[in-house]
């Protein structure tokens, strides 16, 4: 089953990784994009806790870069929120 919102979030983070000037941020964004890409096609979807940890990392990354990068991170965060709105639980 494909989770389109998580795939879209992954693509937004790849865009952010390509736009950042920071090697550390590029590596972290690429890793988060890869995680979301794997989660978008996994047999079982992620729970709120896993996604909250990813979003926490995005909050840290979004505050330390330029506006293009921040916009892509915000877009990814919005996609994750859309996905989470349909999850049972918290």
Tell me about this structure.
Helix 1 runs antiparallel to helix 4 and helix 3 runs antiparallel to helix 4. This protein has one domain. It has 90 residues and is mainly alpha-helical. The mean pLDDT is 91.
Q: Please state roughly what percent of the residues sit in beta strands, choosing from under 5%, 5-15%, 15-25%, 25-35%, 35-45% or over 45%.
A: under 5%
Helix content: over 70%
Tell me the distance between the termini.
Answer: 22 Å
> What is the number of independent domains?
1
Q: From the structure provided, what is the oligomeric state, counting identical versus distinct chains?
A: single chain
Radius of gyration: 12 Å
Helices and strands: which structural class? mainly alpha
Averaged pLDDT, please?
91
Query: What's the helix count?
Result: 4
Q: Describe the main β-sheet briefly.
A: none
Give the tally of β-strands: 0
The unreliable regions are none
Strand/helix succession: HHHH
Characterize the overall form. globular
């Amino acid at each position: 089953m494909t989770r389109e919102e998580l795939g879209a979030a992954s693509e937004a983070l790849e865009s952010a990784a390509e736009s950042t000037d920071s090697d550390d941020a590029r590596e972290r964004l690429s890793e988060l994009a890869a995680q979301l890409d794997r989660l978008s096609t996994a047999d079982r979807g992620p729970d709120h806790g896993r996604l909250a940890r990813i979003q926490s990392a995005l909050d840290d990354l979004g505050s330390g870069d330029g506006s293009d990068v921040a916009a892509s991170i915000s877009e990814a965060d919005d996609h994750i929120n859309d996905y989470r709105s349909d999850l049972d639980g918290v």
